[in-house]
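Input sequence (212 aa), recorded before submission:
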Amino acid sequence: MKSSRIPWVVAALASVAFFAAAAHAGSLSESGAQPVEFSVLGGVQMLNQNDTAIPDHSFNIPLVADVTYRLSSNWAVEGDFTWMIPVKQKVDLGSGIQQDRKAPDLLAYQAGVRASLPASSWTPYLAAGAGAVTFLSSTDADRAPQLDQSKTVFAINFGGGADYALSGSWGLRADVRELVAFPSSSDAGLSTAGQADAIWMSRAAVGLDYRF
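Predicted structure, token format:
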């Protein structure tokens, strides 16, 4: 998908989420439920094997902020923002040569739907959505690849997790996601010889959530 179309995709998803939330706001308010949930999480994120210039199996640290609006006890819409902080590690540069390198900083912004199955004190869920990922520019010598311009590409996510209720409005949350970015064959640094491969990124994160 062309990067110029990405803002329209994100806007469309956000619009659907907004109107769906508005349609159900009244019933949740009357029931006394706490429909809004804000979560902050951290963990590990791995850029899996791909055919681009990004090093295979590169481990990094994600910082995640998530806002969820519950439409009912089973359904919710969510917005997820991730800053992936790269970690320097040994990278195979070919011919048996290894040097310390790190991937580009990455920003991911996704909108999606969550299906939950509430239990007595914990709530497992499945989730999926779409949005965009931005690979931030950096030409530092220790970057792999070196990007002279930031690249924003279409991306999807899917996965699941669980919420565990603590006292009051606080809770614990664990979340596992697969994020898939789709660079263009013309994106320098994210493609090789005019061909681009989907970039798969696995994320495991834990943190706190607050409902209000």
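Checked by second reader. The chain is about 10% helix and 50% strand.
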